[in-house]
Design brief:
It contains seven helices and five strands, in the order βαβαβαβαβααα. It has 185 residues and is of the alpha/beta class. It has a five-stranded parallel sheet with strand order 3-2-1-4-5, with helices on both faces.
Length: 185
């Protein structure tokens, strides 16, 4: 029997509790889950690709997935999504859906990807009820304006965001926050 390999692509700028919920659930459905962190310079990410990969690795390790789940790996990619899927042998693209507005965009993308390679299926996972409203864009906006983001991201990600926003304001980051980042990574 061939392995069930799926990719979960995204910018993950930053990785949120919603992303981690999808990863946790997806890992139980496949033999190998490849989290594809897109360079996506067009979105003007806050974190560099190296920072996003490091955060994702720390967050996935902290999930402590049960035995019997698929292998989870994290890779950067800067190619067409279908080319990335083919390069890792994926037969599935996993996407999380939060709302009807997500579906419209994802439906169009799934159709385009099916035209590019009908052998790779797009599979949608509904966000858990408690995670449906979380988006990386809103987390950054709330955090940048001084709001509490601790229910949307892990303590590690919250600390890294605080460091980034302090840098934007020309403030120096607090050493305790940096230590927290190093302790988990």
């Amino acid at each position: 029997m061939s392995s069930r390999i799926a990719i979960y692509p995204g910018t993950f700028d930053p990785v949120t509790n919603g992303h981690l919920d999808i990863i946790r659930r997806a890992a139980s459905l496949v033999d190998r889950l490849v989290i594809g962190v897109s360079t996506n310079a067009g979105k003007g990410p806050l974190f560099s690709i190296e920072e996003r990969i490091a955060l994702m690795k720390s967050e996935v390790a902290a999930l402590d997935l049960p035995a019997g789940n698929g292998i989870v790996e994290i890779r950067a990619f800067d190619t067409l999504l279908m080319h990335f899927a083919e390069s890792v042998g994926a037969r599935m693209i996993l996407r999380g859906l939060r709302a009807v507005s997500d579906f419209e965009y994802e439906f169009q993308m799934a159709g385009m990807n099916a035209r590019l390679n009908p052998g790779v299926e797009t599979v949608f996972l509904m966000a858990s009820e408690s995670q449906q409203f979380i988006s990386s864009r809103l987390v950054k906006e709330i955090g940048r304006l001084g709001g509490d983001i601790t229910s949307f991201v892990s303590p590690l990600v919250a600390a890294r965001l605080a460091d980034k926003f302090a840098q934007e304001r020309g403030e120096s980051a607090k050493p305790a926050r940096r230590g927290a980042v190093l302790d988990r990574g």
